[in-house]
């Protein structure tokens, strides 16, 4: 058995975003390391045969960041983005399936952000800044809000001549995502009013662009955070589907919207087609001219669905155990590929028929098969109001429930619109198997507000974040105590992002926990509206904004900072210094409050990190520091031997 160390967690590889070839024979996918060792990320592109007849092979060296693979229409070559020429500036490249040297197709000073090879093989749609940085007027490093912000425009690159021209009909819209009609016709373009981190101005719209003439037709405003535009054909007409957050956002989660694309400039009605479903859409995949396939989060598992053209409702095609993401389909729809992870298998690329068994193609972490992992159990229980909930329990390796009670750490997921699927729980942010191998039982609850149980379940936290979802978590902990699994005198709680908020909320509501970890968490919702990139959308969770009169405001009652004087639990606070999602001021505010009331805590800020911790040295610190924190605070008050750590006492 191999020992699990922090290095064994962060020094592995992980595949990302597979793309299947139009003929269904190959799947391309980037592979990157879990932990970044320098200032610039690195990734290589691999290809694998979808029938697993031959082993995967590395197509690019990966000495730079090689990513965003896109297949040529004839499936004979691959386009990809890379910063190999100049670190931090991404250009378009093309490589043959036989490997060899890649051909650079662009050398724009500002680089590109996306690309899409078009039917016929002559044109590539490229998304890039409207003009090189040195051509934009400016005033040094002075920043004026709303001015001189580079927008990503749509360009058409002619591979025969090497020349490109911009599509002027989109005006000053910021282009986000593209999809070409399967018959080689127009492009569907999702665009925003601005790239600025200001959701009040990031209104999304859908347009259709003729790549030959540049003519643009407006299809109306799209839903919040719209993505994955997908064409399909029925009854002699073309439709478009896309994913978007249900209004008013961010509560309620994602839905699939469909519209009939009018022949002329007539208005198009965007209709939700997933209303009433108890599963939640997470991805769309186009299938030639036929109706699209979609991935749905379904409780602890994932399902593949297909849209029924007659009813405009999604019908289940197959079920996948655990977590599946990044669905991609061949032109015929006979072969799909996705990233899949189950309880004891890390994320890997799988492929096969949508209604059949998917074969594992990649093998990103073979070394982990030598480890004896903790037993991962599925949980199902009812909340205090009768709502059916699920979650996971991980026991220390080699132990059963009968060996309890164990010290219990509850890890709350982010979001809140996320979930703990029945996937391999080993990661950098305090993760289940990492703590289980040290002797802890780990509870991974899925309280209301998350995905996998439909719109009403997700929307239950609207204006009431931390209320019923908190009691959902407490109910699960109490059940584990009653079952003899958890030691009531050795309880810990932690999480990242929304999970960090819930940890901070928990210690202000009860003194039951002996230790907490608040990772990138929210302490004050009003301040998050003011400074976070979600802006006023956060009021959908907290119920109010700070500028709505003199208060008290609803968000004050839902902010952990308001209960700081009640906290007695030691808290470890971790935060990225450059976090724009939840700015580090949230952690600083909580730290100052705990210091004011004399509460034991540690406050750790990671330089050059955003909302996720990516640098290898910082990831190692997170792993070591969080487990050491729980070890110190949850140690058995009557140790079995002097000098023994928690894992020694239990195992």
Automatic annotation (TrEMBL):
Is Glycoprotein one of the keywords UniProt gives this record?
no
Domain Peptidase S9 prolyl oligopeptidase catalytic: start-end pairs = 433-635
What keywords is this UniProt entry annotated with? Hydrolase, Protease, Serine protease
Which SUPFAM superfamilies does the UniProt record give? alpha/beta-Hydrolases, DPP6 N-terminal domain-like
Q: Name one Pfam family in it.
A: Peptidase_S9
Q: What is this protein called?
A: Peptidase S9 prolyl oligopeptidase catalytic domain-containing protein
Organism annotation = Nonomuraea antimicrobica
